[in-house]
Amino acid sequence: MTTVDLRGVTCPTNFVKAKLALEMVDAGEVIEFLLDDGEPVKNVPRSLKGEGHKLLGLKEAGGYYILTLEKGEE
Questions:
Q1: Where are the transmembrane segments (predicted)?
Q2: Pairing mode, if any, of strands 30-36 and 64-70?
Q3: Is pTM beyond 0.70 here?
Q4: Do 54 and 44 meet the contact criterion of CB atoms below 8 Å apart?
Q5: How far apart are CA 22 and CA 27, in angstroms?
Q6: Disulfide-capable partner of 52 in 19, 20, 42, 72 (CB 3.0 to 4.6 Å)?
């Protein structure tokens, strides 16, 4: 599984980087994003879901969050 560390990356740059990472994997693949608390954990999952990706989980992990999603169809 691919993990993309977006901690310390501000909005909307973190969403742009998440989209770029998703372009590198095939539809149906699972990818993890590490996100900061606050705006990133609110905005990035919502935006990616709006792009057609399937949210599989979001869990706190000691000061940051791990977002797991499945890439949607192109």
A1: none
A2: antiparallel
A3: yes
A4: no
A5: 9
A6: 72
Q: Specify the CATH number for the domain of residue 28.
A: 3.30.110.40
The domain total for the chain is 1
Do 44 and 21 contact (CB within 8 A), yes or no?
no
Parent domain of 12: 2-71
73 contacts 51 by C-beta, under 8 angstroms: no
What is the average pLDDT across 44-54?
97
Catalytic residue among 11, 30, 34, 58: 11
User: Measured in whole angstroms, how far is the alpha carbon of residue 38 from the centre of its chain?
Assistant: 14
Residue 9 vs residues 18, 28, 54, 66, 70: alpha-carbon distances, Å: 11, 26, 22, 14, 22
Percent of the chain with pLDDT over 90: 96
Residue 27 annotated among the catalytic residues of the structure:
no
